[in-house]
Amino acid sequence: MKNHYRIAFALSLVFCISSAHAQESDSAHVQESDSDKGKLDLSFTLQNMFYWRGAPLSVFSTPEQTPAPLMIAEMTYAKKGFTAGFWTGQSFISSGYKNASYYVKYDWGNFNVSLWDVYTYSGVAQNRSRDFFNFKNAETQHFIDLDFGYKLKKIPLSFFIATIIYGRDGNYVGEDYQNRYSTYFKVDYLLKVNETIGVDFFSSYGLVLNNVDGVNFYGTFDSTDSHGFTEFGLTGSKKFQITPTYSIDLSVGAIASPLSKRVDGLIAIKLL
């Protein structure tokens, strides 16, 4: 199956599932409730580094490019289970990580599916185009990520799986560019200590569905494996109530990545 057929199939899958559930909702609810009305939201977070699926990211995540503190902002519009969002991460240093991404997501019950277009415009590789509108598979700086998540109802255990289905996750085999389809699987357990304190315990595994060159997208420059555990970690979080209507969230994490051969400490303050 060609790459563009894979993308069309993924988009069709998301659309069909969403449409089916929307029809069920329309037949069950004749009048629109307050929860059905659209909601626009903004969030803003400060982090000591950008850490993504087992790897701290700067420009190319090389020893010369140490991950730097950054600010993260997100804008979302949600209605009837659908969410459309824009996400951006901006490093405090000019040579640091910079990203502008957008996505669509659909939630029903404890299950969700999302499709992301992730675009990093810092440190574009020589064989990739700086043109945002270039979506040719072997040239584009974008990658398309298809994600599925599920939360159990009776225990605070969640599962997440994501596959990069197009773009800058591949290499040439002869003259033929092939995608690796790097896939990430994560299990997370949230322990609620009280109303304001929680601890996440999680582990994840990365692999490729097409072993093009013996590596996968989730490792750093030290990684030379096509599969392996990407994370073993825990993150503690606490909500601080500043005023009756305003609070901030502080989280501190420690993560070991066997695949990337490193340990990292994470600090994040969510201000909005």
From TrEMBL:
Going by the entry's taxonomy, the superkingdom of the source organism is recorded as Bacteria
Tell me which positions the record assigns to the signal sequence.
Answer: 1-22
Q: Which keywords does UniProt give here? A: Signal
Protein known as:
DUF3078 domain-containing protein
Q: Name the species this protein comes from.
A: Algoriphagus aquimarinus
